[in-house]
Structures are given as C-alpha cells and as structure tokens.
Write a structure and sequence with these properties.
The protein has two domains: about 200 residues, Up-down Bundle (Growth Hormone, Chain: A); about 200 residues, Up-down Bundle (Growth Hormone, Chain: A), CATH 1.20.1250.20. The chain contains 16 helices and no strands. The chain is about 85% helix and about 0% strand. α3 runs antiparallel to α4 and α5 crosses α12. By secondary structure, the protein is an all-alpha fold. The two termini are about 35 Å apart. About 50% of the residues are buried. InterPro entries: MFS_dom, MFS_trans_sf, TM_effector. It is a multi-pass membrane protein. It holds the Pfam family MFS_3.
C-alpha cells in the first residue's frame, strides 16, 4: 500500500519526468531489440566468429571514442534537443538498414557501420538523459533517488528484459521486423521528449570566448578527480565493473559446463538478472532513505561479491538463478545511489562532462575483467574466476568504507551544497 510520503514523491516528480521515463523505456526497448537482432543478422551474412565480434565491438567502441565529447555537447546544448537528435539519427540509421534488408543488399560492412552509428546515438542519448534528470525534478535527494531508480529500472527492463526477447522473436518471423519496430521505438521516444515543456531559461551567452572542446573535457576530468568523493565513486565503480565483467564474460561457460543448462538456460539466467535489476531500481530510493546511501552502496558491493562467490562454489541452477537476481538488484541499487550523489554534488553546467568522464573510468574495468576472467578460467577452472571476483569485491567494499560511509557522504554533499 503506498504511503503518503511515496504519493508526495510521485507528485513532485511531475509529468515532465514521466515523459522522460516513458521515452527512456521505449528507447531502451529499441536498443535491446537491435542488440539481439544485429548479431543474428550478422550470422545470416557470415558464420565467422570474428565478423560477429566486429559487429558487437562496433556498438561498444563509441563509448571509448566519444563519451568525453558527448559530455561537452550535453553541457553546451539543450539536453532535451540532444536526446531528440540522437533518437532521430538512430531512426534514420534503422530505416536505411531496413531498406537494405528488404532489397537484399545488406552485408557485413553495412552491419558494422550501422552498429557503430547506433552506438554513437546511444552514447549521446544516455549521457543527456542522465544529465537531464535534475532539470525535470528538484535536487532533493529523495526525488533524485526515486527518479534515478525508475530510469535505471526502465533501462534494465528495456535493454535486458523486454527488448532482446522481442527482437529475437520478431527476427524469427521476418528479419526485417525487429529493425522496423526498433525504428518506430526511437521515433516514439523522440516525440515524447519533444513534447516535454522546458522552463523558460535565458540562452547561455557570455562575452568571453567559448572554451575549446579539449579545455572543456579537461575541466570535467579535473572536476571528477579533484573531488575526493567523486573520485572514490568512480574508482569503486570501475573496480566493481572488473568483477562484474569477469562474471558475465564467463557466465555462458558456467551455465553449460558447471550447471549443465541447455542454451535457453543461459538466457534464463540473464532474465533473472534483469528481474533483480528492476526490483533494485524501484526500491533503491527507499533503501537509501532508510539505511543511508553509503550503507546501500558498500553493503551492496559486498553483497554482490558474496553472490558471485556462491556462484563459484555451488553448482546448482536454482541457486545460480537466485544469485544472479541478487547481483542484478544490488548492482542496480548501487548505480542509483552513485547517480544521485553525482547529481547532488556536481554543478549543472558540468554534469554532462563529469558524468561522461566517470563513465569512461568505469568502462576501463570491462576489458580488464573480461581478460582476467578468461585467463583464470583457462589456467584453472571457470569457478576460480568467480571465487576470485567475489573475494575481490568484498575486499573493495572494506577498503572504501572510510571514504564512502554515510557520514563521509553526508559531509561531502553538504560541502558541495554550500
């Protein structure tokens, strides 16, 4: 039964946020659809594993190449317009790809180009959407935590829970359908964002010459690493990504060799993660109010470590599904807390650049974790990579207790507000 407090939080979020939420959900479903359908289309064009990996890598490379520049664009321009243009650009790419499919002209080169351009659009949309949340709700921690939790839940549902199965099912009916549906999802998202009314604000004008892109990027990086708390948040997220990527990189192997699951069982483990992520996103705000953001983050980090450790020690599919649900919930709750703290501490005019700098730091942990997980699984056994990742995360949580406990975070946010 909803409480009076939750009802008031709902009212304070307002219709503008709900349209942003709707656009994020629709856009995320589209992203999940093409994330599943693009590799399937690549396999129709070629059976080469290298070709398949090229398509997947093309979608991820934009985060490394363009995230810092996207932060500058998001801080310079109206964030609503950035999201609309990102959706329109992805709509155009998918219309072109659908036309190639209909005319039987699609090939690996076009697929790599399409995956890259769709990845570029996702970079700009995601950074703009996350930076725009304080524009549509007040910077009250309760409102920000609730808004971030719902946005993260929308992303998890769309990209991991609804989008991939829908994309795969439509592809099985006709390979044209997921891409046509995906194009419509981005068009709908763009229209929803375009309908959001913004407060009348004076244009950002200054007699001083505009700084160069390089200087603005450097300013965001300096702000991130010059703030002790933000630096710790980025570092602990990066280290968490090392363990999380090591876990997910070896999950298919664990499912088949250790748990003895058929191919669809691997998909069910991913579904369990998405279910947990949805629950974590929706309950993170309440947990943060009840226990404090530091407790949610540190206990969450240690809890993920314990769940990964259990995955390496217990060869039972039901236990594995439960642990995947736990990791999804706790990792999402951590993400909500980090996003809320960042939005409270960073000035609005720097939020896009600090966010993009943080994302880049976090992403560094991905390939490192995948490589370490692969080496440990090859030299020893796949379970060893899980045991190592779990113990590592527990130690990370203990190491960052002095910097990221409730008292330290409260002091840091008060200083930023002052």
């Amino acid at each position: 039964m909803p409480t009076k407090e939750s009802d008031e939080a709902e009212v304070r979020l307002g219709s503008r946020f709900h349209r942003l939420f709707g656009a994020t959900l629709v856009s995320s479903i589209g992203t999940g659809m093409h994330a599943a359908a693009l590799p399937l289309l690549a396999l129709q064009a070629t059976s080469s594993p290298l070709a398949l990996s090229a398509v997947v890598m093309a979608a991820e490379i934009p985060w490394v190449l363009l995230s810092l520049h996207a932060g500058v664009v998001v801080d310079r321009l109206d964030r609503r317009r950035v999201m609309v243009w990102a959706d329109l650009a992805r709509f155009a790419v998918l219309v072109g790809l659908a036309a190639l499919i209909l005319t039987a002209q699609v090939n690996l080169v076009w697929l790599v180009v399409a995956a890259f351009l769709l990845g570029v659009g996702q970079v700009f949309f995601d950074i703009a959407a996350q930076s725009a949340i304080p524009d549509f709700v007040s910077r009250d921690p309760r409102n920000l935590a609730t808004a971030n939790g719902r946005i993260v839940a929308a992303e998890s549902n769309g990209e991991d829970f609804v989008g991939p199965p829908a994309g795969s099912a439509l592809f099985g009916v006709w390979n044209f359908l997921p891409f046509a549906g995906n194009a419509l999802s981005f068009a709908a998202s763009g229209l929803l964002i375009l309908s959001i009314r913004t407060d009348a604000k004076p244009e950002k004008t200054s007699e001083a010459p505009r700084k160069s892109v390089r200087r603005e990027i450097a300013e965001g990086i300096r702000w991130l690493f010059g703030n002790r708390t933000l630096r710790a948040l980025a570092t602990v997220s990066c280290l968490g990504n090392v363990a999380a990527t090591a876990q997910f990189a070896m999950l298919a192997l664990l499912a088949k060799e250790v748990l003895g699951l058929p191919d669809f069982g691997f998909g069910l483990l991913l579904t369990a993660t998405a279910v947990g992520a949805t629950a974590g996103g929706l309950t993170a705000a309440a947990a943060s109010r009840r226990f404090g953001p530091g407790t949610v983050m540190l206990v969450g980090k240690a809890g993920v470590g314990a769940a990964i450790l259990v995955l390496g020690l217990v060869a039972n599919s039901w236990v594995a599904a439960a642990m995947m649900m736990v990791t999804g919930a706790l990792m999402t709750a951590e993400k909500v807390v980090v996003s809320t703290l960042r939005q409270q501490m960073v000035p609005d005019e720097l939020l896009g650049r600090v966010l993009s700098s943080s994302r880049l730091v976090v992403m560094i942990g991905g390939p490192i974790g995948a490589a370490i997980g692969g080496v440990l699984a090859t030299v020893f056994a796949v379970q060893v990579s899980y045991v190592a990742a779990g113990v590592f995360l527990i130690l990370v949580a203990l190491a960052f207790c002095p910097v990221l406990n409730n008292r330290a975070l409260a002091s840091a946010t008060e200083q930023s507000a002052g």
